[in-house]
Amino acid sequence: MSELTQELKAKIIAQLNLEDLTVADLDDHTPLFGDGLGLDSIDALELIVMLDKSYGIKLSDPKEGRKVFETIQTMADFIEANRT
Amino acid sequence: MGKQEYRIQTYCTIRSRSIRVNGNRFFDAEPSTPLGDFLKAAYRELAVDYPKFHKMDGLCKAIFIAAELIARESGPYERHTALLFANRSSSYLSDNRHAHDIFHADNPVASPATFVYTLPNIALGEISIRHQLQSENVFFIFDHYLPEFMVPYTNATLEDSQPNGGSALCGWAEVTEETCDLLLYRIGTSGQLTHSVEQLKRLYNEEDE
């Protein structure tokens, strides 16, 4: 799991152009939106595309997305349970 | 009562890996520096904390830097500062990237972060958010730099927007994969330079003199 969270951090930094951050700066439990990383709605769409492209997971229910994208850890848990 | 005369208060050019404000050097890099690296280095030189900069396309980044420098030189923008811009290639950089993504042979996937920049006036939205502007804005597409159109259009816009108007940020911002040809200038009711076609031609060609 730790390997997956590290991989996710690297992908998120690259995909969302978070130039001022490194993998070491990201905590597994930091909120991705709001007061945490401060991601926006376009970033949320990018994360949905990333799930599909990198892990073959299609996310169609917006309510589900709110939980899945809460933290790096919740994303990793969701990927572990649903990856194809 | 005669018509208000408008003046150029501050101007900024970005060209040939050199950024100048009112003709004075702010930042230079080697001509061989990739444009993306150059704009990123200029952002670092600005020393502002605005992480969204890194998500912008090249057109937005160049305009962001110039708008920031002009505000630094001549003070914060008034809320009603109109934004009047033009270029030749519209948002071609992002359009091309988006087309490349969606027509990819093996994995055609649209990137929302790319798609959101597939209009040139998105750059004006970015400036409005950054400087909290609630004003008129327009982004023209011309074959070439055209102060003959921009000067009377700017004057008319400022006249129409009275009593709240009187200030504008205008410019030409042509950005390709590896080139940046940008002149941004701030218009107000006071300033050192006349707001005229001849003046804007002189400022545009200043780096080449």
Please summarize what this structure is:
By secondary structure, chain A is mainly α. Chain A is 56% helix and 0% strand. Chain A has a single domain, classed as ACP-like (Non-ribosomal Peptide Synthetase Peptidyl Carrier Protein, Chain A, Orthogonal Bundle).
Description:
The complex is a heterodimer of chains A (84) and B (209). With 84 residues, chain A is mainly α. Chain A has helices at residues 2-15, 41-55, 62-68, 72-82. Chain A is globular and about 30 Å long. The two termini of chain A are 16 Å apart. The mean pLDDT of chain A is 89. By secondary structure, chain B is of the alpha+beta class. Chain B has one domain (7-208): Thiolase/Chalcone synthase (Peroxisomal Thiolase, Chain A, domain 1, 3-Layer(aba) Sandwich). In chain B, 37% of the residues lie in helices and 23% in strands. In chain B, strands 1, 2, 3, 4, 5, 6, 7 and 8 form an eight-stranded mixed β-sheet that branches. In chain B, helix 1 (35-46) packs parallel to helix 2 (58-74), helix 2 packs parallel to helix 5 and helix 6 packs across helix 7. Classes of the chains: A mainly alpha (84), B alpha+beta (209). At the A-B interface, helix 2 of A face loops of B.
- What fraction of the residues of chain A are assigned to beta strands by DSSP? under 5%
Q: Give the CATH architecture of chain B.
A: 3-Layer(aba) Sandwich
CATH superfamily grouping of chain B: Thiolase/Chalcone synthase
> From N to C, what is the helix and strand string of chain A?
HHHH
- Largest two-chain interface: A-B, 14 and 11 residues
